[in-house]
Amino acid sequence: MSTAAWPELVALIVLLAISTPLLGNYMAKVYGGGHAPGDRVFLPVERGIYRLTGVDPDSEQRWQTYAISLLAFSFASVVVLYAQLRLQGHLPFNADHQVGVKPTVSFNTAVSFLTNTNWQNYAGETTMSHLTQMAGLAVHNFVSAAAGATVAVALIRGLVRRRTHTLGNFWVDLVRTTTRVLLPLAFAFALVLVSQGVVQNFHAAKTVTTVSGQTQTIPGGPVASQEAIKEIGENGGGPFNANSSHPFENPNPITNMLQIWLILAIPFAFPWMFGKMAGSLKQGLAVLSAMLVLWLTVSVVAMVFEANGNSKLNNEGVTQTATSTQAGGNMEGKETRFGPATSGLFASSTTGTSTGAIDAQHDSFTPLGGAAPLVNMMLGEIDPGGTGSGLYGMLLFALLSVFIAGLMVGRTPEYLGKKIQGAEMKLVVLYILFVPLMVLAFTAASLVMKHSLSSLENSGPHGLTEMTYAFTSQGNNNGSAFAGLTGNTDWFNVTGGLAMLVGRFMLMIPVLAIAGSLGRKQPTPVSAGTFPTDTGLFAALLTGVVVIVVGLTYFPVVALGPVVEHLVGKF
Q1: What mean pLDDT do residues 202-208 have?
Q2: Which among 478, 392, 492 is positioned nearest to 116, based on CA atoms?
Q3: What gap in Å lies between CA 542 and CA 402, rounded to an integer?
């Protein structure tokens, strides 16, 4: 591995160590219900929004009302975005004269940005107008991330409150997440990206003559503003088809490292915030430790395999060793600005969260290097996961872990003093099973139908990985892809849209139901038989449960795909 890769990883960890407590403490105050930093600036804005929309910020909602509000907001959002995509040819700020997007692509895209997936079956620079990018896609980058945060906050309240029937107010949580967390960060870092050369204008694409005498089309548009929230909100949908490997989105190693940090900053801050809101920072640190171990393990695997390259090329006399003049390793599908190891770090971070942005082509990774981001998504986007979704996913695994521990010692399991009983465990099982059932079913169906199978560029183990990756990405609301699958067909647009909807709302609703059930309970006093959930032992148990559950679910398809491809050596 390049000697520069390890310092980059260490620098990233240092940045996260600095930002996690700062951001986590701030977010705990934002959602805590009392005074929060910035009240003098944000409260007048928020009160204006509440008056305009008729929201009573002092009223709280039961979990059913909270869920209905979430679904109603999501339905209205997807309808508006679908209409905007279909009608964009008749709307202003369309410098490149883009026409309306066809129905199945509009459906897939609207659902994709609604669910924080940002799967893109289109090339942004040749499909979307500036208005669509700004008022459609970028807006959903904010509100879809905020919606995930609201569910996590509701679950925390259910865990820490006593004998309550309410979980807060969805509309207040949505507004405060957007105005106090996402907008300030996005505004600040959009300016930083502009300073580094990321494009931000309203220009149409320009055709220019290069120094070699050839012609080239140079796109324009409001890129930096969307790029910032794309990473901060764990969205991933970039203005250009090449995403963060495009120099207009990600010009240099500084912006690349900044984007990786932005992807991870809020997800890692959520467990810290959880500890502060729970009144025990150790509880949050136990969850944070499990997330960190999983993310770091996958990152090192991806970095090492991409840095080592393709062993078959060594037999052909090709040098893959890192030198002063070349990055070394597997450079296929990589940017020379970043190199293979850093691309592996970006891939593990973007798939460990629900971001889906890319600075290299995952389809060109080595078999086991490509397996790393695939397995990362199969974990359920919990290491550290999306904005809020990573925390509530890991907390449900925590409930499962204490339930297993309770079975081993013959005691009713408890978490934060709340007894975990049959009602909660049924919902946890549904949460764990919904996405794998849908992913594996759609993958199997697509592999036996000729018209969908023809969308694969490759056959054999790599083709299986490409198909599995697509539905795993959509079902887990990630959005990254193996480029060997042509997803812009009616079959994949519709099934992909359904996968994204299931992966979002069939998980959010059980989480809110669990929050409502736990919130009504009276905490049980700690006794000598209480299994501690704020220790390194519990963090290890939590990590093990995640690995075992995911391994039992997905091992066959991973073994038949990337593992077989690696063992056969045809890469």
Answers
A1: 88
A2: 478
A3: 9
Provide the pLDDT for residue 330.
Answer: 86
Phi (first) and psi of residue 350, to 5 degrees: -75, -25
Beta bridge partners of 318: none
Amino acid, single-letter form, for residue 261: W
Grouping H, G, I as helix, E, B as strand and the rest as coil, residue 253 is: helix
The confidence band for 125, taking pLDDT boundaries of 50, 70 and 90, is confident
What letter represents residue 473's amino acid?
Answer: S
The pLDDT > 70 percentage for the chain reads 96
Residue whose structure tokens are 């300073």: 195
Residues 6+ apart with CB under 8 A from 231: 189, 259, 262, 263, 355, 357
Contact 328, 309 (CB under 8 A): yes
Dihedral sign computed on CA atoms, order 138, 114, 98, 83: negative
CA distance to 12, 13, 381, per residue, from 16 (Å)? 6, 5, 18
Exposure pattern of 490-502 as b/e (b: 16+ CB <10 Å)? ebbbebbbbbbbb
CA 178 to chain centroid, in Å, comes to 17
**CA quadruple 332, 235, 159, 43: dihedral, nearest 10:** 150
Count of residues making up the chain: 571
The answer to whether residue 571 scores a pLDDT higher than 60 is no
Do residues 415 and 398 lie in contact, with contact meaning Cβ atoms separated by under 8 Å?
A: yes
Statement: residue 238 has pLDDT above 90? no
Task: Report residue 207: phi and psi, to 5°.
Answer: -95, 125
Does the pLDDT value for residue 401 go beyond 60?
A: yes
418-419 and 414-415 beta bridge pairing:
antiparallel
- Average pLDDT for residues 30-36, to the nearest whole number? 89
Query: 377-393 burial, b if ≥16 CB within 10 A, otherwise e?
Result: bbbbbbbbbbbbbbbbb
The pLDDT score that the predictor gives to residue 483 is: 83
Q: Are 462 and 484 in contact (CB under 8 A)?
A: yes
Contacts of 560 (CB under 8 A, 6+ apart): 461, 464
